Input
Amino acid sequence: MSARKTLLLVEDDGFDVEFVENQFRQAPRHLSLQVVRDGVQAAHYVEGQGAFADRQKFPVPDVILLDLKMPRMDGFEFLVWLRSRPSEPDRFIPVVVVSSSPLTEDMKRAYTLGANSYLMKPVNWQEFRDRIQASGICWSAPVSSPEGPLP
Output
C-alpha cells in the first residue's frame, strides 16, 4: 500500500466537519484527516506552530480541503497566505476549495489565488459524500512538483 496521506480539512461548520469525518472513517487506511476551524488555525498547522508542532501527530498535509466563508481568516485570505509562503513545499500543497458558494466570482477568485479545484457542497448529502471521497482519492495520489515528487 502507498504511504500514508494526510488531508487537512479547514471548516468552521460543525455539521460539515462531522459529515466529512464520518466519510473518512470509511476511507482507505492510508488516508488520514486532520481538522482545523479557520484559516488562522490552518496557517499554524501548515507552519507546525503551537499545538501543531508535533509533526508525528500533525504531519504536513498532502492536500487541503478549504472552506471559503470562515471567521478570523477566510479561505481567500488563507490561499493568499499559503501561495506566498517562502517555503516551496508549502506553496505546492494542493488545495481543494469545498464551498456552498455558487458565485462565479468566488470560483474565479479561488482559482486566481491558487486553488487547484473548486468543489461545490451539494444539497444532496449522498452526492457530497461521493465528491469528498473522489477528491480524497484523486488528490492524495502521488503528485509531482517543479522540485520533483512530493512525499
